[in-house]
Design goal:
Order of helices and strands: HHHHHHHHHH
Number of strands: 0
Number of helices: 10
Helix content: 55-70%
Length: about 220
């Protein structure tokens, strides 16, 4: 029986709470653009959100990655993919049709669009192009789409690490870390940071969002 990792559960809870505070602060953050902005903004809030922006989402992806490895020890690949579809893609579609449209509606009204009501606005999510030019978007549900794709891409690696040869590789990495610490992983982090300088602007649009993938 696999023991539940309550430490990861609590890390996830903390990351979600920080995520909530991050988005609540964004209307008041100076310099950064946002869907709705307060008239008065704060440099202090900008610095706090800048600090959070560098590790809160990578932490959630890390927790999800560990969860993937644990789940694959209990279920088949087919069941894993079906679980990911139910828990990520179906909520994503629901959110794009129900949760996100009111957010875009208020943003358009805030920026001067002339809609008579939300019912007047809603059909435009099907008749216009994708956000920001149009009104169809997954907005802050982008995490669901990215996590699903990352899970599928990482699946062959996770299966390889379960094999005999893959376990040998894990043992070698573990022995290296035991002897030299985690400094060797700094090379990977340095490469990621270097790529981030090439692609600094995240779009969360999935297509051509190299910043989001390298971060």
């Amino acid at each position: 029986m696999i023991e539940r990792r309550y430490d990861l559960d609590w890390l996830g809870v903390i990351a979600i709470l920080l995520l909530h505070l991050f988005h609540c602060a964004m209307p008041f953050v100076d310099e950064w653009d946002w869907h709705l902005k307060n008239r008065d903004t704060s440099n202090l809030m900008m610095e706090c959100n800048y600090f959070l922006s560098h590790w809160r989402m990578p932490l959630l992806f890390f927790i999800s990655g560990v969860g993937t490895v644990i789940v694959l020890k209990r279920v088949s690949v087919q069941k894993f993919l079906w679980q990911r579809t139910k828990r990520l893609l179906l909520p994503l579609v629901f959110g794009m049709l129900v949760i996100v449209p009111p957010q875009i509606y208020f943003e358009r009204i805030f920026k001067g669009a002339q809609y008579t009501s939300f019912l007047d606005f809603y059909p435009s999510i099907f008749t216009t192009t994708v956000y920001p030019n149009g009104n169809l978007s997954w907005h802050h549900l982008w995490f669901f789409a990215y996590l699903f794709v990352f899970s599928v891409i990482a699946l062959p690696l996770a299966l390889y690490l379960k094999s005999k040869h893959g376990k040998n590789v894990v043992d070698i990495i573990a022995a290296f870390s035991a002897r030299f610490g985690m400094s060797g992983f700094g090379v990977v982090l340095f490469a990621a940071i270097f790529l981030y300088f090439w692609y600094p602007n995240e779009t969360h649009a999935f297509v051509d969002d190299w910043a989001g993938f390298t971060k």
